[in-house]
Amino acid sequence: MQIKLNENIKKYRKSMNLTQEELAEAFGVTVGAVSKWESGSNVPDILTLMQLADFFSISVDVLLGYSMSSKNVKDISDRLDALLHEDKYDEAIAEAEKALVRYPGNFKILTSCADAYHIVSGIKDLKDYRDKAIELYESSLRYISQSDNPDQESFSIKYRIATLKGRDNPEKSLEEFKKINYQGIADINIANILRMTGKPEEAMEAYTRVLVSILVKTLEFSTEMFMVLVSMDAAKAYKEACEVMDWYMTIVDATSIDRSKNSYLSKMKIMGLVFKSLALCCLKKDDEMKTCIDTALEIAKQYDKKPSNDFAGKIKFWHGSKDYHISLYDNFGVGAVAGIDNLFNMGPKVLPPKVIKKMETALEYWNSVK
User: Using an 8 Å Cβ cutoff, are 186 and 180 in contact?
Assistant: First the structure.
């Protein structure tokens, strides 16, 4: 068994942004002592070893870094997964209890065991198992430095804690979800809790935020997928690119209350038409291409008379309060007609030259009618 104590002391010291001098001061030893620990020329006594492990929020086992222990940890985690997949829930919990005794300060063991209690608590509806899962998840956060991806793992764990608390304490769960609601990622959870706790008006406003997020993500997904498809420079891919835009514009049309009124949906529709026209041009369907551009120009001219990047009251299923407004900002352009120019000029920056060549007819037609 290979011991990596010296490497781990240095690793965990740096993970806490401490210098050798600062670590030495924290333990009342000389800088030379810390230097020898990290070079491997000397080792801490057993009491200092335990204090170091506690200081770094890891177990002595992890601090020592036995290679065999790492293998055992993976074996235990794999064993837990297998038992859960085989519906052997009691065996999984028994295995988790043994693992926690052996590795009380190992991040992987803590999260794997917490997952086991989480899964079984849902299947058997056991509050004590939910509480145990929460306890283990919270403990694992103290050892997050052991993770290869601490930021992502931290969010995932906090999300699971908030979810678990929702079963028995919705108000507490709501607090937890609000803490991690980065860029609205937990809006749907917040909306559901508000609904379950008898707050329909607040719930509907939260659902409105979810709807706006869905619309924006639909735009991002469709345009990015379009770029990949047309870059393939194949007839089948061009056809699929057209279908993606049709699907996207169907959602836009179905969400609009009145297509004659300007909103950010107007811009979204214009983008879909322009992108589709480019794919049609590559397929040499010039008549359909011109129809798309003509329709886009008509909407753009109407939009430029009274520009609006707002959604408030202009989309179906809007339940935002009077003081709740969402305005979106992008690189499309100050005006919609100028925005179409930007879309046509964007092509050479992101698409292969051979594809741009096939789109020249669409650009020529746009320049003749704008």
Answer: yes
Q: Are 227 and 350 in contact (CB under 8 A)?
A: yes
Q: In this structure, what are the phi and psi dihedrals at residue 365, rounded to the nearest 5 degrees?
A: -65, -40
3-class DSSP state for residue 315? strand
Q: Are 347 and 271 in contact (CB under 8 A)?
A: no
**Whole-structure pTM value:** 0.71
**What is the chain's length?**
370
Rounded Cα gap, residues 118 and 236, in angstroms = 45
Q: What is the pLDDT of residues 58-78, one digit of tens each?
A: 777 778 875 445 668 889 999
> Tell me: the pLDDT tens digits for 227-283?
999 999 999 999 999 999 999 999 999 999 987 788 889 999 999 999 999 999 999
DSSP 8-state assignment for residue 19:
-
Distance CA 248, CA 230 (A): 16
CB atoms within 10 A of CB 156: 15
Amino acid, single-letter form, for residue 234: A
Residue 310, strand partner residues:
327
Alpha helices in the chain (DSSP H): 5-15, 20-27, 31-39, 46-55, 60-64, 67-85, 89-102, 107-124, 127-140, 150-168, 170-179, 187-196, 200-231, 235-255, 264-282, 286-305, 336-350, 353-358, 360-369
- At CA 364, angle to CA 362 and CA 368, rounded to 5? 115
Cα gap 249→14, rounded to integer Å: 51
* DSSP-derived secondary structure letter, 256: B
Cβ of 309: how many Cβ atoms within 10 Å? 15
In this structure, which amino acid lies at residue 230? Answer: V
Side chain identity, residue 162: A
Per DSSP, the three-state class of 227 is helix
DSSP code of 257?
S
Nearest to 71 by CA among 97, 101, 109: 109
Tokens found for residue 307: 């520009």
Separation CA 49–CA 264 (nearest Å): 61
- Half-sphere exposure of residue 170, counting CA atoms within 13 Å on the CB side? 11
- CA torsion through residues 192, 196, 202, 204, sign: positive
* Cα 202 to Cα 335: distance, rounded to the nearest angstrom: 35
Looking at residue 117, its pLDDT comes to 97
Q: Token pair of 229, please?
A: 């498809």
Continuous H helices in 232-335: 235-255, 264-282, 286-305
- Please, what is the end-to-end C-alpha distance for the chain in angstroms? 75
